[in-house]
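Duplicate of #3305? Posting structure anyway:
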């Protein structure tokens, strides 16, 4: 059950002796279904910067957000050229899953994981070993391209090879239209089936973990409230405050790569 509106959830002390971590772990032990919402903060230990954190991509360069605005992207070739350079050099191509990704694999192997609903486009959950059928990619993935004209999808590698060969803004090979990554840009709608799957996972759980997301983007930001309304306990694990902290049952403001593995270890009954 969620804390009443206006109250403050339990805020964590240092991980090694933190009673809030032990409390959330006890909630996980007591339920058969945990749904986890992940954002960019879970991948920062893998070398992929987040967006809105102190060193985030958009914090350092607010204009970079134009590259994921669908109207700007579709109508400004210069923005597309910058976007293709960013895709070519993106940290995700070199990144490896970190301890937090692996902790969620452990949660799945313990038979507790209902689903991972992720805002990330890096596929690190699947590369860590999470069952792809349990990973709901709200915003798509950067490993494919899609055409704004004919909607054909192809592997991203094909387009990046063309960029490296000298095409700064490679058009669709099928129709000549504008290519983009197969991710959801600002101004685009999420796929209805994906959103419904995420909402079902929020409703059908006993504990809802919010991990590494600022909860600034809808409809992902609605999911904790949906889970709480269905009776789940909600714990926010994030380095920075979120709009939901005041209503969460617990807030663990610790580095994700340390606190999430510890939390899952305790939930599985391992000694401290």
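Output from current build:
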């Amino acid at each position: 059950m969620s804390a009443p509106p206006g109250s403050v959830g339990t805020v964590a002390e240092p991980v090694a002796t933190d009673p809030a971590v032990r409390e959330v772990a006890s909630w996980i032990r007591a339920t058969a279904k945990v749904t986890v919402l992940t954002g960019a903060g879970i991948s920062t230990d893998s070398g992929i910067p987040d967006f809105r954190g102190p060193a985030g991509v958009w914090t350092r360069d607010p204009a970079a957000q134009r590259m994921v605005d669908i109207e700007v992207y579709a109508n400004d070739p210069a923005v597309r050229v910058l976007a293709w350079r960013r895709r070519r050099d993106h940290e995700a191509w070199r990144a490896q899953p970190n301890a937090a990704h692996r902790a969620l694999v452990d949660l799945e192997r313990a038979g507790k994981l209902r689903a991972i609903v992720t805002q990330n486009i890096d596929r690190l959950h699947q590369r860590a070993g999470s069952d792809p059928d349990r990973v709901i990619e709200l915003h798509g993935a950067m490993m494919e391209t899609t055409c704004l004209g004919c909607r054909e999808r192809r592997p991203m590698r094909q387009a990046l090879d063309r960029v490296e060969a000298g095409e700064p803004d490679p058009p669709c090979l099928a129709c000549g239209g504008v290519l983009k990554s197969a991710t959801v840009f600002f101004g685009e709608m999420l796929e209805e089936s994906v959103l419904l799957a995420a909402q079902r996972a929020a409703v059908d759980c006993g504990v809802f973990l919010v991990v590494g997301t600022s909860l600034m983007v809808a409809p992902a930001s609605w999911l904790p409230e949906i889970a709480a309304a269905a009776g789940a306990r909600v714990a926010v694990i994030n380095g920075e405050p979120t709009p939901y902290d005041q209503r969460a049952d617990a807030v663990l403001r610790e580095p994700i790569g340390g606190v999430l593995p510890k939390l899952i270890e305790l939930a599985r009954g391992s000694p401290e």
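Confirmed duplicate; merging threads. The chain has two domains: 1-48+97-138+190-272, 49-94+140-183. The two ends are 27 Å apart (CA to CA).
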